[in-house]
Amino acid sequence: MLKIRLQRVGRKNDPSFRLVVVDSRTGPKSGNHVEVLGSYNARAGSPVINKERALHWISVGAQLSSTVHNLFVAEKVIKGEKVNVLPKKSPIVKEKTEDEKSSADEGSTEEATSTEEKEEKEVTADEAPKETEPAPEPKKEESTPSDDGEEKPAKE
Fold first, then answer.
1. What is the pTM of this model?
2. Is 2-74 a CATH 3.30.1320.10 domain?
3. Were both Cys, which of 19, 26, 50, 115 would link to 30 (CB 3.0–4.6 Å)?
């Protein structure tokens, strides 16, 4: 199966990529690409894409990597919604609108009053007489033998 993916090129700490069509079984760094479709400079944010060839490979059955899919959607090569590229453990966090923030603030004040009431109830339950427990015995200092043959107290 063919894939359209990014191949990193360039210097260290200067991310720039090639858009390449490769066999899915080979790695992006192998250099065995079928065709170069364009380039993407991540720092400048300026992709250069050969749209006709990209659409040709998609029509033939090449699959897009998730980052390339998002890049093509942003450049309007294909239509659709962006895909979550993050791992499944960290989903996309949507920003709250002003209405949601104000309603969340109101809900938090209600929660605060209910927690205060719970704390007051716990205090009254704690006032009940308890049986006295014996005091714990103090720890004895242990001594360790040293190289000199003298015993010194152990450090805690």
1. 0.53
2. yes
3. 26
Q: Are 143 and 153 in contact (CB under 8 A)?
A: yes
Please give the Cα distance from 36 to 40 (Å, whole number).
12
Q: Rounded mean pLDDT of 58-70? A: 89
Residues 129-156: pLDDT tens digits? Answer: 555 666 666 666 665 665 666 666 666 5
Angstrom CA distances, 107 to 101, 111, 113, 119, stand at 10, 6, 10, 19
Tokens representing 84 are 């979550």
Q: What's the pLDDT tens digit per position in 6-53?
A: 888 888 888 889 888 888 888 767 777 888 889 888 888 888 988 898
The whole-angstrom separation of Cα 49 and Cα 19 is 8
3-state secondary structure 55-97: HHHHHHCCEECHHHHHHHHHCCCCCCCCCCCCCCCCCCCCCCC
Angle at 87 between CA 85 and CA 91, to 5 degrees: 85
The position carrying tokens 């103090």 is 138
